[in-house]
Amino acid sequence: MDLEEQVMGIIVNAGQSRSLCYEALRSAKSGDFDQADTLLHQASEFASLAHRVQTQLIEADEGEGKTPMTLIMVHAQDHLMTSMLAKELVVELIDVYRRIAQ
């Protein structure tokens, strides 16, 4: 897989993870916690795919600047970090909705 494909893999998988997180939040908001849990699990799977690609890039670079840093690479990292933050916040918000529902 070439660098561009790897970077796009981060963007696509991180974006899908983030979208699933917000879909899970909407499900929790409507009281469907089973669906919210399913969607969060799916989001975690996509996040793992994105993180795996990021790890491959880091390992290939070996801390020596071998991997060219491009704007699209920075964009991919931004997508990944944003999706990770979204998941953390969505998990907390779903917990609040669960407590309210009880």
From TrEMBL:
Annotated transmembrane regions: none
Free-text remark on how the cofactor is bound: Binds 1 Mg(2+) ion per trimer.
One MF annotation (Gene Ontology) recorded for this entry: metal ion binding
Domain of life: Bacteria
Signal peptide, first to last residue: none
Enzyme's top EC category: transferase
InterPro entries noted in UniProt: PTS_IIA_lac/cel, PTS_IIA_lac/cel_sf
UniProt keyword Transport, yes or no: yes
EC number(s) per entry: 2.7.1.-
Gene3D superfamilies from the UniProt entry: Phosphotransferase system, lactose/cellobiose-type IIA subunit (1.20.58.80)
A biological-process GO annotation: phosphoenolpyruvate-dependent sugar phosphotransferase system
Pfam families in the record: PTS_IIA
Active site positions, chain numbering: H75
Residues the record lists as binding Mg(2+): D78
Annotated CDD domains: PTS_IIA_lac (cd00215)
Cofactors: Mg(2+)
Keywords in alphabetical order: Magnesium, Metal-binding, Phosphotransferase system, Sugar transport, Transferase, Transport
Modified residues (Phosphohistidine): H75
Keyword Transport listed: yes
PANTHER family in the cross-refs: PTS SYSTEM N,N'-DIACETYLCHITOBIOSE-SPECIFIC EIIA COMPONENT
Protein name as it appears in the record: N,N'-diacetylchitobiose-specific phosphotransferase enzyme IIA component
Species this protein is from: Vibrio ruber (strain DSM 16370 / JCM 11486 / BCRC 17186 / CECT 7878 / LMG 23124 / VR1)
Lineage start: Bacteria, Pseudomonadati, Pseudomonadota, Gammaproteobacteria, Vibrionales
Gene from which this protein is expressed: chbA_2
